[in-house]
């Protein structure tokens, strides 16, 4: 999906998370004005909440990365069967009528590290891994 200048770069919904009960976890949500970035410690104990500005240029860069990694085609679920502990993740994005809803546990779509890097860049370098 390549956006043209008449399209909105700000998402209608943006809610992503990654982490696990025994370690550090991260959640990012767009509220229409800024990104709310939350870091959780062990047991999902909130450690830090930060409001981060994301202007049109940052979003434009993020959507270009999403296009490069073909994230719009991810399956709904990537779960490694038989593993209870580890890393869970989820993505729910709506932009200009397109939707990406995917998640998993201990398994990931192709080029997932590119997605993590794109989110980190959108956050101005804050950790998201």
In brief:
The chain has 129 residues and is α+β, with helices and mostly antiparallel strands.
Key attributes of the depicted protein:
129 residues, alpha+beta, Mago nashi protein, disordered N terminus
Descriptive account of the structure:
The protein is of the alpha+beta class and 129 residues long. It is 19% helix and 36% strand. The protein contains two helices and seven strands. The protein has a seven-stranded mixed β-sheet with strand order 4-3-2-1-6-7-5, with no helix packed on it. Strand 3 (35-41) and strand 4 form a beta hairpin. It is globular and about 45 Å long.
List the topology elements:
Layout: E1 13-19, E2 25-30, E3 35-41, E4 45-52, H1 56-68, E5 77-79, E6 88-95, E7 98-105, H2 112-122
Parallel strand pairs: 5-7
Antiparallel strand pairs: 1-2, 1-6, 2-3, 3-4, 6-7
Mean pLDDT: 93
Helix content: 10-25%
The major pleated sheet works out as: 7 strands, mixed
Structural class: alpha+beta
What radius of gyration results from the CA coordinates? Answer: 14 Å
Indicate the CATH architecture: 2-Layer Sandwich
| Uncertain spans | 1-6
The spatial strand order of the largest sheet comes to 4-3-2-1-6-7-5
Amount of beta strand: 35-45%
CATH class: Alpha Beta
**Named CATH topology:** Mago nashi protein
Q: What's the SSE pattern?
A: EEEEHEEEH
Number of helical runs? Answer: 2
Characterize the overall form: globular
Total number of beta strands: 7
Number of domains: 1
The separation of the N and C termini measures 25 Å
CATH homologous superfamily (4th level) name: Mago nashi
